[in-house]
Write a structure and sequence with these properties.
single chain; about 280 residues; alpha+beta; Rossmann fold; Immunoglobulin-like; seven-stranded mixed sheet
């Protein structure tokens, strides 16, 4: 989710947009590395979605905070990075954190905070058993109605899950997008794939090779599979399609290498720096 006031505030505070860009890009890369296609969504357009990831939301207007609460109450699943709405309208810091009533939304209150980006470059915490990188800012919590699901090395609560109305939230007290972006050479973080489980959303296509990306397109003309290999070597890969897409018996290849289709499993070798496009046949 893109929030203009957070970007503007960080530019005014830091003199550049580096923190915001790193957080947004890193979050996108975290999903992409797990073969999950995320959309860029303006906060005014969130009603088109039922699952949102909110990077570095350090400033929110009261209107946008209320919009997020109403969206979750109606059944949405919101994953937020740390310090949501720390600065509210006109950049005023709220006496209660999370600010603007978001403590109720996330089921917790701040117990500790650090604005020390220069020493948080290697911040690591435990997210439900997954070692996860953070960075930029650090916020710890005392749960109220929420349940702790992540912890910093010193035992402070790093993440809280909460039910709110018909929806659910997860507040993670640091900037996971920026943390992943700074350590992406370590490979895909399972954290981003696991967030789909929290929302109860199945992944459309799972790739056995994190370097090979696959996308499904469906419409009146049929179901099409696109597979891309950005590397300089051919890559054998097995793709597993989720149940709602149905079962397939074969494929008509429109571009690239042949593939073997067996129900919900597609196997092929993608040529170096090339794509394969095929229509799946039931």
């Amino acid at each position: 989710v893109y929030v203009p006031e957070s970007q503007f505030f960080l530019y005014a505070q830091q003199g550049n947009t580096d923190f915001y860009a790193r957080s947004m890009e890193g979050a996108y890369q975290g999903f992409f590395a797990n073969n999950i296609q995320a959309d860029w969504v303006h906060i005014d357009d969130i009603d088109q979605y039922d699952f949102l990831y909110l990077p570095i939301p350090v400033m929110l207007t009261a209107e946008h905070a209320a919009q997020l609460k109403a969206w979750v109450a109606a059944g949405g699943t919101l994953i937020s990075e740390g310090c949501p709405a720390y600065w509210g309208d006109r950049a005023h810091v709220g006496p209660t954190q999370p600010n603007l009533g978001l403590d109720e939304l996330f089921g917790c209150r701040e117990s500790y905070v650090e604005f020390t980006p220069d020493i948080l470059g290697d911040l690591k915490f435990n997210m439900s058993g997954i070692p996860t990188w953070g960075g930029i800012f650090l916020q710890a919590y005392e749960p109220t109605t929420g349940t702790p699901v992540g912890w910093y090395a010193d035992g402070k609560v790093a993440a809280v899950d909460n039910q709110f109305g018909k929806g659910k939230t997860r507040l993670i007290g640091t900037m996971v997008g920026a943390g992943y972006g700074s350590h992406s050479q370590e490979g895909a973080s399972p954290l981003f794939a696991n967030l789909l489980d929290l929302a109860g959303k199945p992944q459309h296509v799972v790739s056995s090779d994190p370097h090979v990306k696959a996308r499904l397109h469906s419409g009146d003309g049929g179901t099409y599979l696109w597979v891309a290999n950005p590397l300089r070597q051919p890559r054998p890969v097995r793709l597993t399609l989720n149940e709602p897409w149905g079962h397939f018996a074969g494929a008509t290849v429109l571009w690239g290498a042949a593939m073997n289709v067996d129900g919900q499993t597609v196997s092929l070798t993608v040529p170096a720096r090339d794509v394969v496009v095929a229509q799946l046949v039931a």
